[in-house]
Amino acid sequence: MNILDKIIAHKRKEVARRKARIPIKLLEESLFFNTPVVSLSKYLQRPDKSGIIAEFKRKSPSKAAINLYASVEQVSIGYMQAGASALSILTDEHFFGGKNEDLTTARKFNFCPILRKDFIIDEYQIIEARSIGADAVLLIAACLEKEQLHDFAKLARSLGLEVLVELHHARELDKLSSAAQVVG
Known about the structure:
Blueprint: H1 3-21, H2 24-28, H3 40-45, E1 53-56, E2 59-60, E3 64-65, H4 72-81, E4 86-90, H5 93-96, H6 100-109, E5 114-117, H7 123-131, E6 136-140, H8 146-158, E7 162-166, E8 182-183
Parallel strand pairs: 1-4, 4-5, 5-6, 6-7, 7-8
Antiparallel strand pairs: 2-3
Helix pairs in contact: 4-6
């Protein structure tokens, strides 16, 4: 079993627990659920911006600990001051040391678009992303079937979120959904 398979297996269990604990109705009542989003695709194209999506993460499976005690507030503000066009906030706790609260905190201190970076394998996570203040979600082609990717992108767009699709191989191009605004 490779690392991606391990992450997805763990994510299935994690999402099932969250779905049992916090129903979609509660997510839809969140402060952020109906607030306007900031366009990731437009910010990346602005001539007065760098075009860089700066990432916040505390650890990774390949590098282990990066900075387990990093402050999302300080780091995200620093990224913005340095000219980042957008922020990517890791919300996967087990493998990357992130949490949903990191994205919510970044939202409170930054006006730029914020991408929820996680291993999205369930529609619940897209609704959850909207509820915690994300402007865009990452959909990883390697984690999803073509139809799933299309359906998830469509759901994200219906909620006002933009979609960044992550591709690693040319063979994944056939999965690309027309609903994706950004490809990486």
